[in-house]
Structures are given as C-alpha cells and as structure tokens.
C-alpha cells in the first residue's frame, strides 16, 4: 500500500463523536484512502487491507498486526458514530444521527486480510467532497500508536494554516468519547493530551504546543498552536490562509450564544459560520 495515499474526510466526520482503537483507526483510514472521489461510489464497494499493508505503512511487526487485526475487525462492526450535522453543512440542532462506520466486515484468516463495506450514511462524508473537508497523507499518522493522537491531528489539520485552534475541554471529551474517564484535568492531560501531542510532534508533519484558557477560576479550553515542520514535505496539504468568518461547531456556538438568541442571530453577531 502506497504511503502517498491521501485521506479525505468531511469536517463533519472529524468533528463527530466516536471511539476507535489504533488498529481500528488504521483499518478505517487505509480504506478511506482507497475511496474514489472522482466517480460515484455506492455502499456495495468492497475495500480491502492486509496485515502486510499496515505493517509496511506503519513500520511495525507484521506478527503483531496479525494478532490484532481479527479482533479489531470484529469490534469495527459495533463501532458507532454520532453526527450532529448533515453532509451539506446545514445545521440540524435537534437531530442526532447514530450510525455505524461499516455495514459488513470480513476477516480472512489465512490471508490476514480485512474486507469491509462502509455504511450508507457514512459514504456522503467520504466521497464527492468539494468543500468543508480535510485532506492529509496517510503517512502523516501511520506511525502513531495513540488513537487520541490521530484524532487530535485531524482536528488541527482541519484548521489548515490557521496555526491555532481553541477547543472546549467538554467538547474534546465528547469527541473522544471519554465518558467518565479522567474527570480531573491533570489526569486528562497526563493520560490523553500530553501523549497525543508528543506523538504528533514525533511522527506527523506538524509541530504542536498547547496552553490553557480559564473562565473565572476554571480551565475551560485548551489552545493548540501548530505549524508545519520545515522538513515535513507534502504529508499535510497546505490550504489557503483563512480570511473569512470564524468557523464554529454547533457546540461552541451554543456556549457563545446569548440567552434567547437564535442561532442565525448569534452567527451574525459573532461574524461566524458553522463548521
């Protein structure tokens, strides 16, 4: 499998709530990189990835991949995604769609191969994208061993050359599906954020630092500053510097809106658009 394969995801999927293990992420991303975006794709198309493909891509021991692949393939069938926005970007604040990544997944033991079909509701977020999407080379995340690092990288890559992204801690916990884990910020940073930032800095084309922002005495947001490394090459596609309105998620907008203020009025006042 070529390391030059590119992953293209709708920003709505990047901002969706889901949890995948590192091996599951590698399977999904390897298959997303095979999706044709220049022609119609149906939910009947079968995508395939082998233990050899992943071992070559990630530089890991093929025996370890064989061991993990079968279990990851079985778990993938149960993995769900919570999406709050429709593929066209229109806001659906009262609609929470629960769907699955895949409709079928097979593991061929003798070949160490996973074959899957993406779910019908997921395909619009992976094909025919002309706006509100993020593109990066699969090699940018291939060697990461933290699923949180892969997700955080995507959340930063989503902002292109902006160089900074401020994320509400409650929103980040929801995106990562952390539940009741790490309720204390110190533990969240030690177990999730710090390892993710370390892996992004070690393996990806981005250099990242972060700081905290308070509302009163409480830390409510993490502020990530990032820039391409000089030797990063083409692994992260550069986007034109954003000069338009600020982009907010529905969750961030709900926090900034005044009591009784409509969504449209809040967007106008803030000079923003929905992600």
The proportion of strand residues reads: 15-25%
What best-fitting shape do the alpha-carbon axes yield? Answer: globular
Reading off the top of the CATH hierarchy, the class of the largest domain is best stated as Mainly Alpha
Q: How many beta-strand elements?
A: 12
Roughly what percent helix? 25-40%
Number of domains: 2
Low-confidence parts:
232-243
CATH architecture of the largest domain: Orthogonal Bundle
Largest β sheet strand count, sense and barrel closure:
3 strands, antiparallel
Question: What is the CATH topology descriptor of the largest domain?
Answer: Arc Repressor Mutant, subunit A
CATH H-tier superfamily of the largest domain: Winged helix-like DNA-binding domain superfamily/Winged helix DNA-binding domain
Q: Nearest-angstrom radius of gyration?
A: 19 Å
Write the layout of secondary structure elements.
Blueprint: E1 6-10, H1 11-14, H2 22-32, E2 47-50, H3 51-58, H4 62-76, E3 80-83, E4 97-100, E5 102-108, E6 113-118, E7 133-137, H5 147-157, E8 164-168, H6 169-175, H7 185-203, E9 206-215, E10 218-228, E11 246-248, H8 250-256, H9 263-270, E12 272-274
Parallel strand pairs: 11-12
Antiparallel strand pairs: 1-7, 2-6, 3-4, 5-6, 8-10, 9-10
């Amino acid at each position: 499998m070529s390391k030059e394969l590119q992953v293209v995801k709708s920003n709505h999927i990047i901002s969706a709530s889901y949890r995948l293990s590192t091996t599951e992420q590698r399977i999904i991303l390897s298959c997303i990189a095979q999706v044709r975006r220049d022609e119609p794709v149906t939910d009947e198309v079968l995508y395939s990835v082998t233990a050899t493909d992943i071992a070559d891509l990630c530089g890991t021991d093929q025996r370890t991949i064989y061991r993990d692949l079968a279990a990851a393939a079985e778990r993938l069938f149960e993995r769900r995604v919570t999406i709050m926005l429709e593929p066209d970007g229109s806001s659906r604040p009262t609609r929470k769609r629960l769907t699955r990544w895949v409709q079928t997944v097979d593991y061929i033991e003798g070949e160490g191969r996973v074959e899957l079909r993406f779910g019908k509701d997921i395909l619009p977020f992976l094909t025919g994208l002309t706006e509100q999407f993020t593109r990066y080379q699969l090699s940018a995340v291939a060697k990461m061993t933290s699923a949180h690092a892969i997700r955080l990288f995507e959340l930063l890559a989503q902002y292109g050359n902006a160089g900074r992204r401020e994320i509400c801690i409650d929103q980040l916990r929801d995106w990562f599906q952390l539940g009741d884990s790490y309720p204390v910020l110190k533990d969240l940073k030690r177990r999730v954020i710090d390892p993710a930032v370390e892996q992004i800095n070690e393996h990806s084309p981005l250099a990242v630092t972060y700081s905290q922002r308070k509302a009163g005495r409480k830390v409510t947001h993490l502020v990530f500053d990032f820039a391409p490394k000089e030797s990063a090459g083409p692994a992260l596609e550069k986007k034109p510097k954003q000069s338009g309105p600020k982009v907010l998620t529905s969750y961030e907008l709900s926090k900034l809106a005044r009591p009784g203020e409509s969504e449209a009025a809040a967007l106008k006042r803030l000079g923003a658009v929905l992600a």
